[in-house]
Amino acid sequence: MQRKSFAGMPCPIARSLEHVGEWWSILILRDAFRGVRRFEDFRESLGVAPNMLTRRLNSLVEAGLLRRELYCEHPPRHEYRLTERGKDFRPVLLALLAWGNRHFPAEGEGVMLVDTESGARIDPILVDRHTGRALERGSYELAPSLAASAATRPALADEPRRRKCASSDAASPARSPAQRDQPKDR
Amino acid sequence: MQRKSFAGMPCPIARSLEHVGEWWSILILRDAFRGVRRFEDFRESLGVAPNMLTRRLNSLVEAGLLRRELYCEHPPRHEYRLTERGKDFRPVLLALLAWGNRHFPAEGEGVMLVDTESGARIDPILVDRHTGRALERGSYELAPSLAASAATRPALADEPRRRKCASSDAASPARSPAQRDQPKDR
Fold first, then answer.
1. CATH number for the domain including A71?
2. Cystine design at A24: which of A56, A107, B103, B145 (Cβ 3.0–4.6 Å)?
C-alpha cells in the first residue's frame, strides 16, 4: 500500500507508527516478546507470506527494534532478537492486550495478565512514573516540547467545545465559501 | 491489502488489531481524541485519500469505536465521535506517544505529556490498578482466562531459555528432518 510518510511529523504517535504502524509488525513484536526468534517460527506462528515476513522483519531491524544475530555458523543461520528499543515497546502491547480483553473478549478462551507472585489478575493502567498519578482525562495535557506547531499542540488533549452547524462552518478557516456550499456529508 | 483475519484468535492483541491494526485507524483515533469530528477535518489533518478515509471511518464505526451523529439536518451532516470503547483506547495512544518520544525524538519540535496541575513532564508507565505495582519484566505473566490453547499461553511472557543450534533444531517439533536439512536462513 502506498502511504504518506509520517517520519517528519512532530506528533510522536505518527513517528511511532512510521516504524510499527503495520499490522504484521505489531504481531511480530508480540511473538518476539514471547520468545519467538526464528524466521520459520514467526512464519508458522503468524501464517504470514514469507516475502511479507522478510519485509517486516527487515523493517523492524532497520528501525532498531530487532537485531539480527548469527546463532549458527554452519550453515549460517540468524535469529531476531528484541533490542532495548524493541523491549521498550512492551507497554504498547500490554495496553493493546488490556483493551482487547475488555472490548473484544475471546469466545470461550483467552489470555489475561496475572501477577507473577500472587497470581491475581492485573488490570493495567497508565500512571506518571514520578507522581504515581493515573493518566485520566483532565489530569494531563500535551505541551510543545520545544517549539511545536499549533497544529500539534492540542493532540490527545480533551475534546474541544461543542461546535454547531453554522458557526463551525464559518469558523473553519480551511474551507472556502465555495466548498462550504457543497454538500460534504458522507 | 489481503490479510488473514485475526478476530477468532484467542490473543487479545490480535483481536485489537483486527479493529485498529491499520495505520490510518490509529491516526484517526488520535485526531478524534484531539477533537476532530468531521470528515473534511480528518481529511485535512491526515492528508488521506477520501475513499480510504471513508473506509476507515466506517470500519471504526462498525467496530464500535466511533459513532456517527447528525449535527445538522439541513443539509444533513454527520460527525464522528468517540464511543466509550473508543475513549478507552487512550492508553494505547499514550503508550505509543511515550515510546515515540523516547525512541524517535522530533527534530527541533515535538509534543510531550505534562501534568495539568503542575505542568511537570509526565513519564507514563503501566501499573496494576489494584496494587499500583509497575508492570515490569518478571512482575507479571499471561495466564489462560478460560481454556486458552497452549500456543497462546506464553505470549508476552519473558523470553525463554536461550536456544542453541543443534538442540534447538532437534527440539522444534514443527520442522521435519527433511526441512531441517534445507538452508532456511534469510
1. 1.10.10.10
2. A56
